[in-house]
């Protein structure tokens, strides 16, 4: 029952807002924004579909020309290069520097 009362209050607030802002321009702006968001979503979906189609075409082309082995070798080389990279070591500080010590260290440099 509390949920129904809460939803009723929210609906009343929304109705009051609409009646206060129903000058036409505000609602037209909201409709324009909603339409723009929908169009952007549709465009994103189309781009994702196009990307998927292109990716499938590339892999089909690679398969037809038997470039799959070349691709696999290249990927293995990249994986090995990434695994061989070393991370830079940063010295560990025993204690945190105080504000004055940090300023003095900067001035000395």
Entry summary:
The chain has 109 residues and is an all-alpha fold. Helix content is 79%, strand content 0%. The mean pLDDT is 82.
Largest sheet: none
For the record, give the distance between the C-alpha atoms at the N and C termini, rounded to a whole number.
69 Å
Total count of helical runs of at least 4 residues: 4
Helix content: over 70%
Question: What portion of residues belong to β-strands?
Answer: under 5%
| Total discrete domains | 1
Average pLDDT for all residues: 82
Shape: flat
Number of strands: 0
Query: Which structural class do the helices and strands define?
Result: mainly alpha
Helix-strand topology string = HHHH
Low-confidence stretches: none
- The Cα radius of gyration reads 30 Å
Q: Would you kindly provide a written description of the structure presented here, covering whatever features stand out?
A:
This protein has 109 residues and is an all-alpha fold. The chain has one domain (2-79). 79% of the residues lie in helices and 0% in strands. It has helices at 2-20, 25-64, 68-84, 99-108. It starts with a helix and ends with a helix. 0% of the residues are buried.
Keywords:
109 residues; mainly alpha; flat; 0% strand
Layout of secondary structure:
Elements: H1 2-20, H2 25-64, H3 68-84, H4 99-108
């Amino acid at each position: 029952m509390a949920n129904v009362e809460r939803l009723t209050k929210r609906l009343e607030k929304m109705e009051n807002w609409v009646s206060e802002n129903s000058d036409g321009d505000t609602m037209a702006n909201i409709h324009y924004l909603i339409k723009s968001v929908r169009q952007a979503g549709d465009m994103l979906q189309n781009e994702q579909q196009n990307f998927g189609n292109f990716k499938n075409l590339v892999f089909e082309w690679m398969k037809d020309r038997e470039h799959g082995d070349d691709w696999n070798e290249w990927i293995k080389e990249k994986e090995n290069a990434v695994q061989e990279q070393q991370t830079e070591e940063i010295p560990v500080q025993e204690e945190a520097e105080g504000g004055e010590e940090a300023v003095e260290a900067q001035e000395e440099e």
